[in-house]
UniProtKB/TrEMBL annotation:
Membrane disposition: Multi-pass membrane protein
Family: Belongs to the drug/metabolite transporter (DMT) superfamily. Small multidrug resistance (SMR) (TC 2.A.7.1) family. Gdx/SugE subfamily.
GO molecular function: transmembrane transporter activity
Pfam assignment, any one: Multi_Drug_Res
Biological process, per Gene Ontology: xenobiotic detoxification by transmembrane export across the plasma membrane
Transmembrane residue ranges: 33-50, 57-78, 84-103
NCBIfam families: PRK11431.1 (NF008512)
Keyword Transferase among record annotations: no
Protein name listed in UniProt: Guanidinium exporter
Length: 104
């Protein structure tokens, strides 16, 4: 259950990271409100997951989910670079997150 909560926390991290872009420096109300709400939910869920999971692994997985998801959505939504090196690096983050999940 803790890993599921951590996954949800990571998904909300993606929401707030992308929301930062849409908020245009917190100058647009609705994207800013969504961003702040997603931040609060993400950190709260991370805190719940940390009741059962090791802090080092859980935090790294949370950041990894956020980083990979945000990078992929950046490619889709904002037409960011899809260079081979960038995609390889994103893949390495995914492998690291999977490794941490299985390492405990």
């Amino acid at each position: 259950m803790s890993w599921t909560v951590l996954l949800l926390a990571g998904l909300f991290e993606i929401v707030w990271a992308i929301g930062l872009k849409y908020s245009e420096g917190f100058s647009r109300f609705l994207p800013s409100a969504i961003t702040v709400l997603a931040m609060a939910i993400s950190v709260t869920l991370l805190g719940w997951a940390l009741r059962q999971l090791p802090v080092g692994s859980a935090y790294a997985v949370w950041v990894g989910i956020g980083a990979v998801g945000t990078a992929l959505l950046g490619i889709v939504l904002f037409h960011e670079s899809t260079s081979v090196l960038r995609l390889i690096c994103i893949g390495l983050i995914v492998l690291g997150v999977i490794g941490l999940k299985f390492a405990g």
